[in-house]
Queue: 2 jobs
Job 1
Amino acid sequence: MTALFAFDDATCRHLAATHGTPCFAYSGAVAAEQFQSLRAVLPPRVRLAYAVKANPHPDLLARFAALGASFDCASIGELERVAALQLPSGRTFFAGPGKREEELRKALAMGVRVQAEGFEDLARLDALADRGVAVNLRVHPAFEVEEGDRIIGGSGPSAFGVDEEAVPALLQRAAGLRHVRIRGLHVFAASNQRDAAKLLAIHGAVLDLAKRLREAHGLAFEQIDLGGGLGIPYAPEETPLDLEAFGHGLSDLLAGHPWFTGELILEPGRFLAGPCGVYLARVVRLKDSRGTRFAILEGGINHLLRPLLTGQPFPVKAVGKGEGDLPYTLAGPLCTSLDRLGEARLPELAAGDLLAFGTTGAYGLNEGMTHFLSHPVPPEIWVD
Ligand SMILES: Cc1ncc(COP(=O)(O)O)c(C=O)c1O
């Protein structure tokens, strides 16, 4: 079972004493275990592409690369980080609803497989290419999905991909392109889903969609990319994804679609990177305010934005103090009442106590929005 905290109390104390706080620490062993435990249950025809957006730390990327991972990128910053790994071609993918020309040029130069999210991606690639380029078409499906998290946005209007009903018109326009050929399908329709049956139902619907597109438009799919969305527990009562059931289910899906002889791609970010990370921050002071006990910490939403964005806190423990049942509101040091990392029941705290937030290896520091997706930070220009 996946532990909520990658490091025991003694290691947390040692890391805090050695490196200072606040800090993030990532366990290479836990990251490798997540990767290998998933890889072990997947049919050989499934390629595992780590979604770099979950955590682009270079050592984490290098560890996954050494284990045979491919990579899903969503910006030029992420492409550059993956380029530094010097992987053979075929191991990098590039998705994202707003790809700039400079990014597409980089993707072409790297031999990256682009997930085209609309006609503009296809046309821009076609104009940049001087030879045949295979791409995948990202489709925003019409089927209803049950998300574990507020990330994808359900089957309503979406900035991602081509709406399923708009695919025929797009294919007609794309028929006139000289270099670009659609050779794969990409659908990402789940988020933080820990129920294998629900994930498999979505993946089954994607294979059905691929079959319909193939029959209606003669598309020959070499690849079907099922996106990410594999969930992890964020609380002790949450059960982890049943990996055996998930792996067997994917084999059954492939067996049920004998027409598809290509490669399935999975792009998990959270599942592979989440459990390896711990965020360490000390209590600066305690305050009782009108019936609420605040623990004010060295870091807040400037380091962990996810609780504010999704309303879901990270698990937290008071290092070296065991269990406790006193209610605390965990506040950061920022001058905004939005700066909350959640509510927690902890032992009696004192200034200087060390708190550890678990499962912060994915969508932790890099979900701070200027870092997210490794997009370039905009310059600030002083005009006088
Ligand atoms: C295209 C794409 N692939 C993969 C992922 C990773 O998703 P997760 O971390 O839920 O597995 C995302 C997340 O937003 C995504 O947009």
Note: The pocket of pyridoxal-5'-phosphate is lined by residues 51, 53-54, 72, 95, 151, 188, 191-192, 227-230, 267-271 (CB under 6 Å).
Job 2
Amino acid sequence: MVDAYHFAPMSEHPLPKMIEPFKLVTKGAIVRGSFELCSLLRLKGELSNEESTENNFAEVELAFERDKLGYASASGFVKARVGMVCQRCLGVVPSPLDAAVNWVFIKDKSSFEDAPKTYDVIIVEDEAVSLFDLIEEELLLALPPIPMHEEGECRAPDHQPQSKGFAESSEVKRSPFELLAGIKKKNG
Ligand SMILES: [Zn+2]
């Protein structure tokens, strides 16, 4: 019998947009592949527009199985290398994203509370869920909160006023007396 997904035992790309997790668990399927990040619009909104296309792929590997407690689960990883906007110089910061996946699928909301807390619980109302949406969620959570270049790689000038708060500049460290002296000199 040929099924719709051809996942068993392993699938190479392209990744399907929709998956039926309970069927995959029954088969013990491993889903592996890559896909273009441009289809993830929420994620795209967080990234630099200058990013070159070569880094715009996500790599995914997920093992579907029934865990020891009998839950339908999927575990593995989602990896991508994206370009974000440096908060100091507004240039592109290459940011590797590496998210560990630990999902458990349940059929109705009422059992949500009972599901083990070591998982991210995903409610599957119909048989199918969007794999892309789930992956996008993982990648969004893996984004650095304040992307910045390493010191020395940033092209922001050292004493830019708007870098205050992020970068230590000598302006900030200067003592109030020195500043006062400067003002006095100007006036006199
Ligand atoms: Zn920078």
Note: The first helix runs from residue 21 to 27.
